Each structure stands twice: as C-alpha cells, then as structure tokens.
Please model this.
Amino acid sequence: MRRFKAPTTSSGTRILYAVVLVLIGIGAIIVGRNTLEPVSGTVLIALSPLQSGFANLYNSISNAINTPADLASVQARNVELEKQIADLTTENIRLSESESKLKIVSALLDYARTNPERKYVTADVVGRDESRFLRYVLLNKGARDGINRDMPVVTDKGLVGLVTETTINASKVVLITDLSSAVNVRLQNSRAEGIVIGQQSGELRLNYISVEVDMKQGERVVTSGLGGQFPQGLLIGAVASVRKRTFDVFQEADVKSAVDFNRLETVLVIINYEKPNIQPLLGTPVPPP
Amino acid sequence: MRSLIIGIPLLALISVMQSTLLHSVRFLDGSVDMALVVVLAWNLVRREADAPLWAFFAGVFADALSGGAIGAATFAMTTISLVISFTEGRFYQANLPVALLVSLVGTIFYHLLYLLTLSIRGQPIQWADAITLGILPSALLNLILIVPIYRIALWAVKLLKPREIGLLEE
Model:
C-alpha cells in the first residue's frame, strides 16, 4: 500500500509570508500612530465591549477578595450567613461590588464639588497597557462623551495622567508613572519647583530641586501649572525620601503617589481645561533692554 | 488558513485578558505573556503559512491595546515567527525541551526587540530595570506557561491536519 501525504505549505512560502508581515510591521512603525489611528482605533472600538466585560469581572473578583477594612464586621457576619445560605454568596458579591463602586463615585463627586469651575466626565478603567514597560490605562469613554486628547485625568486622591488617544467609545491615558511622563510640580511648603518623572518600576522621582531647598519627608507635591499641561494645584503625592549631596546642583527625592495606580477603577477626566497655547510665545525674541 | 477562523477571535480574547485579568499575575515587574506564548507554541508546531499570520494578528491586537509606538509589537511578533520559520523538521514538534528553550529565548528576544523599537521611537527606557525587573521574570513565567499551551497546540494541530490517505496498489 502506498501512502499519500496531504500537501503542506513549503517552508519557503511560510518564510515569504513572515518576511512580508515583518515589513508591514516596520512600515507601521515608520508611518506612526497618528497616521494609523483609524486602523488602531477601529480595532480598539471592536475590543472595547469585550474589555469592559472582563474589567467588570476582574473588579468583582478583586473587590470580593479585597473588601475594605471598615467592612470587616459586616464581612464576618456575611461569612457566617454564607455558611448557612450558600445561594446568597453571589448576591453578596454583587452588593459588595456596588458598595465599593458607590464609595468611589461618591468620593469623586465630593472632589468634583470642591472644584466647581471644572467640568468632569467619569470613566471606568477597563484595561491596562499590554506591555509592562509602558504605563497606560484604557477608559470606557471617548470622544462621544466629550473626551479629547491632552485632557488631564484625576481621582479624588490626585493626578492620574493625561489622555493621549481617543476613539468614539474609549480613551488611552498615559499615567504619570510612565517613563515618558514629566510633570512640572511645586513643593507645597517650600514653594520650590521641580519635575516629577515616572520610573520603570512605576515609582515617581522628583528632580531639579536646588540643594539649597530644605525639602522634608512628607511634604506635599502638587502640579505647578508651568508649561500649561496640567492645571495648578493637583496633588501628586508626598516626598518619601530625599537624596542630597552637597557637591550636586540639584537634589532628588522619591515621591509616594497619592493615587494607588494598581487599584485604579474609576477616574475623572477634566473636559473643560484649556491648555494655554504658549508655543507662539516661545519663539518671540526678547527686546534689548 | 482555516486556523485563522479560530485564531483571530482567540488572539483578540487573549489580548483583552492580558490587559485586564492577566495583568495582575505578576512576578517582580514581569507578567505572563499569554499571546506571545500562544504564538510561539503555534509557530513551533504548525509548519504552515498561517503561523506567521497568528503572530501578525497577536501583534496588531497588542499594538491597539497599548500606548506605545504602533507596529512595535507587530514587528517583534512577526520577527519571532520569521526566526522560528527557519527551524525545520518534526524534531521540534514533539520536543518539550525545545519548546522551553524557544519560550525562554523567544520571550527575551521579543521584549528586547519591542523595547528597542520603542526606544527608537523616542520612548525613554531604563534598560537595566527593564531587563532585570521586567524581561527576565516574564521569561520565567512564560517558561511555566509554555508547557500546557504547547501540549494544547500539539493537540490542535493534529485536529487541523488532514489525514494521510492510504491507497491499495493493484
């Protein structure tokens, strides 16, 4: 008996396919995100509903595991009841999730009330950057809700980041912990100005503060508004540790962020902040004295 | 090419899972790369032209869900697929140690290529931290993940492969 093998693609064809696809990848890198935004935006729009579903699932599980400490007694009672009525478990998780969500929204609402001049859009975090080297989050609201590029994103705790890309129903936000992020800041007590830069590890580092400034641990760091990227006075965090060497011009410090970026669920996008257009002024020659 | 009917939705689902659920499975600053491991395993066992397309779509989804330079993940994924395309023979298809090696080298190579592209496109990178806290822990996690995924890929490729036909000779 003779055996006939089913035809398979030759390795040459496969390599040819791979080479063409690599070239497409290189082409995309060269062309850049701005030109290909319609393509990536379409993919993102298609993935958004799926992502919202998974984000809700993740938040439910996460909240069920990490119930806030002030609910400890309620939780203990729930555990007792759960032993008796197993059917209530699902309902309990759902209620717990609603309560956590209500707390977050209520805190955000309080924050919004303290800054009535600003207009906010509330959005849920539905995803994080695929790459661990980049610190971006995806929001479930986009251009349809009035969110545009360069809008600052905050929570009741402080500054989160900046909108970098929007589709109809989703937005990408670069967190202030990303390596590409640099925020002009001011120390609340000493009034010294510096720049907070994100680190690969997800931490924040404060640079360009003169060694003559008496920077203390616990001192609050807020946005200075310089450069116009962010409004003034948004809380970034507090100085955690200071590194100062007398022979240096500047000292640096680690900043403990006020926002827990690992547990970011709901945020506020400031939609009426107009970034001042300082670009034309930058080229203006200074008249001689 | 019919594997793409399953492959595209599967890779979309994995990419979404990666940015929501799997993001929290962490070791130091590294996390599992489910899409990458699936692409590595599929390219290793599937000696057909659709294997690079799996890499391409995994890259497209990763780029769409990322804030980094567009095309960076697509380029890195397809390059990995191209490199695996040069390996030939059934030896690779039934050899778990080779799969482990490909997972380890593939993860490191993929991330270095990805970071290099980001760096060229102007994203600042702290290389020492990225390698020690990000790439190496991820490579270790992927080493664990490749074992079941490689087995599933072997099983799936058998399902898709047309059967050999025997003919009686007169």
The radius of gyration of chain B is 17 Å.
